[in-house]
Structure formats: structure tokens, C-alpha cells
Amino acid sequence: MLPASANPEPYRIKMVEPIYLIPREDRELALLEAGLNVFNLHAEKVFIDLLTDSGTGAMSEGQWSAMFQGDESYAGSPSYHRLREAVRDVMGFPFVLPTHQGRAAENVLHSAMIKPGDVIPGNSHFDTTKAHIEYRKAHAIDCTIDECFEPEIEHPFKGNVDLEKLDRSVEEHGVDKIPFVLITVTNNSGGGQPVSLENINAVADYCESKGLRLMIDCARFAENAWFIKHREEAHRHRPIEDIIHDIFRRATGCTMSAKKDAIVNIGGFIALRDEEIYEQCCTYNILFEGYLTYGGMSGRDMEALAVGLQEGTNESYLAARIGQVRRFGDALTDAGIPIVRPPGGHAIYLDAKKFLPHIDQEQFPAQALVCELYLEAGVRAVEIGTVLADRDPDNGNNRPPKLELMRLTIPRRVYTDNHFAYVRDALVNLYERRDKIRGLKFTYEPPILRHFRARFDWIR
User: 210: buried, middle or exposed (CB in 10 Å: 19+, 13-18, 0-12)?
Assistant: First the structure.
């Protein structure tokens, strides 16, 4: 019998893609040409790409073979019906609208539900979510528990909503100004941390008592369910599938970036229990995405998504995936690298404040660390800090977040533990000379979602 700590991957590798580490001088030139923003790098100049887990996973033979069934009918495609049945089976929602990715689902749902002056309480809204809210002259209110903002605390469910914070926001703004309460599983901006089922039910109880709708941003719902099973004693012996149903059972609906837990390269959807909201969303889905039975996706992609929804909830797969992330995080902690503890489900988040205490947040320490890691080892990570937080729409000032993080995001079924040992060694090298790393300043700053396109220079 294997030891409890061993989680061998429940698959074999049958195709490989070569990767190359370009010389240090070429990396320096590439980063300068990119304006010190790794989003602007050519992907072939990256050795190990940990920018995102969105659409970067390796699809299975089941998904690739399903794509041959793809029906490209503009309306009524059987590929849509297979996708709809997969969503109903996994999540339990009767109404399903495909979109080309998660932010498109947010765009459609928010167009139908959010108006100027509204507020949307939730647990650390991610960048595109917050941008869609603020684009509509509304406000996102962070109601995450305080433990989320203490990186070294080993709390099992740092993504939880603080019910007292939620109640204060409802009392301050009024129910009429709140189109829905949002729970993000797992909590990406807070370090990839899960939300307990106990907390989801407590938020649902509160919403029902106030006549509020509950929506779920569920890009990583399967990983969240795994954490519920393994960290919440009451659910330790339950099937993952049953826990997933309970996550969604009391929600009005959800938005899904299927590029995460459904392990596809493109795709997303809105799933709803409320037919009236569904009808409102239909109008915007046709306007922004395409007809209701394809929503910006090809039939081939809908087939791969339907299979991926099932594969992404397999417990053996989840154990191997989350086990790999945990081993990487523990190796960094053992090496003295400050990270958000405990490791989450899809990424390891380095605490840039502790890594680079000499760099003020207004000089973007997490972005500086991202640049240094690329120069050191050809590894592309992403900043989840002051750059991503954008400016306050009311006063135009930077709004440095409580957590200043560099995210090392783990694509699904792509890299081995040897890759992460290489990344660990590179970070140890950086940590030993961390006092020599400089902060950054903008040379170009877009007005919204600036982290995607901004350009920087070193502060001399």
C-alpha cells in the first residue's frame, strides 16, 4: 500500500512539448522590450510558464476524442445539449448559457443584474469581477474573514465570508442596492483559499433571511470541494459529487470560467436556478456572445467542456493535483521562502511584503519579484498586488491591498515535481540577494485592468 502522502498522477503521459531556456542576456532584452510586464512576453521566450492556470491545462484523450463529436449548428447543437446535461448533472442548475470564457459570463450576468450605485458584497472579488462591477458604476465590498490577510496563519478556510462584515454592508447600503452576494470558490485574490460548506450555508441562511440572492463564482469549485472533504470533519466520508451539489444547492446561480476546473483551453457558462434572470441574461448573451446554444464557443469546445466537468471532479485527479501544489508550497516553506499558508488548490502565493520589505507598495514589490524571477530562471509568474488592484474609481489613488503577492500558478496535468524543484532553487537564489532588488514605476498605465498592459521601468 502506498503511504498516505503519496498521490501518483492518475494518468500516463503520451505526448510531450519541448521547452527551452533562452540565455540570460536574451531574457534581459525580452523583458525590456516587454516593458517589465511579463504579459507582454512572447511565450516561446518563457521556460516554465506559471502565469495562469486558465486554459493552460493538458486535455485528456477523452476530451480530445469528444471533440470529434462537435456539432457546429448555429442553433440547437447536440453539443450544447450534452454540455447543458453535464452542468445539470454536476451542479444541479436547470438553466445554462454558454459563453466563451468566465469574464464573458460576468459581463452577461452583470449587464442583466447590476446598475449604477449598487454594491456587491463578497470574498475578495477577483480583478475581472471587480472591473465589471466598477465599469457599471457599482462597488465591490470585501467581506472576507480577517485571517485571510495574515499569510502565515494556518487557517483551513481562509476564503470564508465574515458574516458580521456582510451584515454591516447590508445595513449600510440596504437590500435594494444589493443585486446579489458573491462567493468565489476558491478565493483567488486571497491566496487560492477555500470556503467551507458551513460558511456557504451560513451565507445562504443570511441571504434568505434578508431576501438576497446568492451567486457563486465557481472557476475552481472542484478544488474547493476537495478541501471541504479533507478539512471539514462532517464531510470527510462523503463523495466529492455530493459535496459539489451542496455547494450550489442554495445558490441562485453561478458564473464559470471552464478554463480552470473543467480543464479546457477556452469556454465558460452561466448556470441559473431563476428562470426570470435566465430570460434577462438570454438577451445579453445573444448581444455579446452569440446564440443561446453556442454562446461564443464551437461545438468541439462544448464537447471537451462537458467531458472536462466530469474529469475535473474525479477524486483521484484532485488528490494528485492538490498534492502537487502542496508539495511545492511545503518545499518553499522549508527553504525559508515566505508564502501564504496553507497552500491553496491551484497556486502558491509568495508574500512580497516579507520577501522584499525594503520596497514600498507604491513601488510594486510583487511586480518587481515577477521580473526578477523571469530574469533569474525564465519562469513567468503573475502579480496579485498593488498593480492588479488598480486605482480607486472615486479618488484616482492607488489602493494597495492588504496582501501583496506573487502567484505561481500551476497548470493542470502539465508540469512535474522536477519543474517545481527548479523554481524553488531559483527563488532561493533570489531570496539570498533580495536586498539588491529594486522597485518599479509606471511608464504607461491603462485606465482599467492595468496589469495586463502596463509598462514599467526600474527605480534607479
Answer: middle
What are 360-389's pLDDT values in tens digits?
Answer: 999 999 999 999 999 999 999 999 999 998
**CB neighbours of 123 closer than 8 A, spacing ≥ 6?**
142, 143, 144, 148, 159, 160, 161, 182, 183, 184, 187, 190, 195
206: its cell numbers: 443570511
Q: Which residues contact 220 (CB under 8 A, 6 or more apart)?
A: 185, 186, 188, 192, 260, 261, 345, 346
For the segment 241-277, what is each residue's pLDDT rounded down to a tens digit? 999 999 999 999 999 999 999 999 999 999 999 999 9
pTM: 0.94
Length, in residues, of the chain: 460
Nine-digit cell string for 270: 452561466
Q: Would you place residue 1 in the very low, low, confident or very high pLDDT band (cuts 50, 70, 90)?
A: very low
Question: Active-site positions?
Answer: 74, 126-127, 217, 219, 260, 451
The answer to whether the CB of 94 falls within 8 A of the CB of 116 is no
**Is 393 in contact with 134 (CB distance < 8 Å)?**
yes
φ and ψ of 409, to 5 deg: -95, 135
Q: What's the rounded Cα separation, in Å, for the pair 346 and 190?
A: 12
Ordered structural domains, the chain, with CATH: 24-53+315-458 (3.90.1150.10), 61-311 (3.40.640.10)
C-alpha grid cell, residue 403: 496582501
C-beta separation of 407 from 349 below 8 A:
yes
